[in-house]
Amino acid sequence: MPLLFSSSSRSRRGRKVPIGFGLLALAVTLCIGIEIGVLWSEMMVGSSVQEDGARSSASFPESMPLGQEPDMRNYERERDELKKKVASLQEELAEMKNSLRKETKPNPITTPVPAANIRGSGSREERLHLETLKASIAASESSTPLIGVLVIACRRAQYLDRALTSFTKNRPDATHLPIVVSQDGHDPGVKQLLENSQWSSIVYSMRHEQGHGNGYEKLAQHYGWALGRMTPFLCSEVVFSVQDQAYHVAHAVIILEEDMEIAPDFFNYFLASLPLLKTDPKLYCVSAWNDNGYETAVHDPRMIYRTDFFPGLGWMLTSELWAEVRSRWPSGYWDEFMRRPDVRKGRHCLRPEISRSYTFGEEGQSQGQYFAAHLSRIKLNTDFVDFLSDTARPLRHVENEETFDRWLMNEMSSCVKVTLAAFDGELAGGQGKCFRIEYRDSMYHVFASRFGLMPDEKEGIRRTAYKGVLIFYFQKHRIFLDVNAGVEGL
């Protein structure tokens, strides 16, 4: 098994040292030193003035200027203020040290501290890996795009084994969809699994020196490091020639995790979506996940939608997006970062009606009651849909924003428009109807509870929503939940 990369930035004692914090601490230390120097100078001047004043008072008690004593008090007052400044700077330094040890979630609106060690070393192994992939593509005599499949792993060896079984079983082409497992830390079970002959010949691997912080922070740091190492896929467009034939590599990476399984048409869906993602400036990701994709809320495996909400959980990004976010990749809560308005920039993601990924990881960051109540209930698609078909063109309605907007308005205009109060009465007329129900922002939680949808929102965007519209099924009826009451268009 090719062990690709292992890297760490450490001090002599073996502990990772944040460079930004070191510079900040140095600056604060210099400020304290300057303030102490000024304080010492002022104290010496004050002492000298006091001595001179005392001598003048003894020799010429009647001729002492009236302003002499107030000047003495000014020096004392300035000395006290300088003491307070030094104490304040010392407190700030202590607070900075303490903040590094806290495990608090950063405000998603603010710019997170960039994660350290994500750029990769450009090592010989990394360069050889790129050459190997180029040679493999050339040998296949195909212009099929190359998409790296990055699997984020840590210490759940049994989960990883199950996940790799699903990934390789449903992968149509090992050459153009190479799997790279990135292990965070040194769990012996995961290491042994990747060295097993079953996987060593068909997947690549690399290892990240685990960072510090809580689980979400370690995960974000690992994500950033691993994406930074996927240089054969996340760099500028590469064109290379073999026997006078040019091969164009459309660089992208699909990100999966060690506790996921995928649908039979997972890779077909991503391969078909890649040209849209590369050419449409209003798209910034493709996801395999539907946050409201419960068994009772989905119906058509062919349907793909645009959404303003970043779903994650099996998603694809391009080199262009990585170039945007690489320098400011967060040190924690990477998914919240991807949902920020200054990252999304009004762009959309593609997402399926029926999920093409499923997470079975009851043990992990999203565990316990949340897994039982939500994640475990998401339906994984079992029917193969050929999204690459030229005749069916199942993605034609999402090719661009204008096309999707027209499609959505046409679909909603053909639905029965009802209020929530009248909805139950309309259900009596059989199955397979289409309803358009308008709602107010402040009342969304009532509608979400009624239909069993996820009630929360991130950065003002509700899960699966597109311009305020949520699309789902309820008792085999198609529902368009629309916030645009009384507004023409979307």
Automatic annotation (TrEMBL):
It is found in: Golgi apparatus membrane. It holds the Pfam family GNT-I. Its cofactor is Mn(2+). Its EC number is 2.4.1.101. Residues 72-99 form a coiled coil. Belongs to the glycosyltransferase 13 family. This is alpha-1,3-mannosyl-glycoprotein 2-beta-N-acetylglucosaminyltransferase.
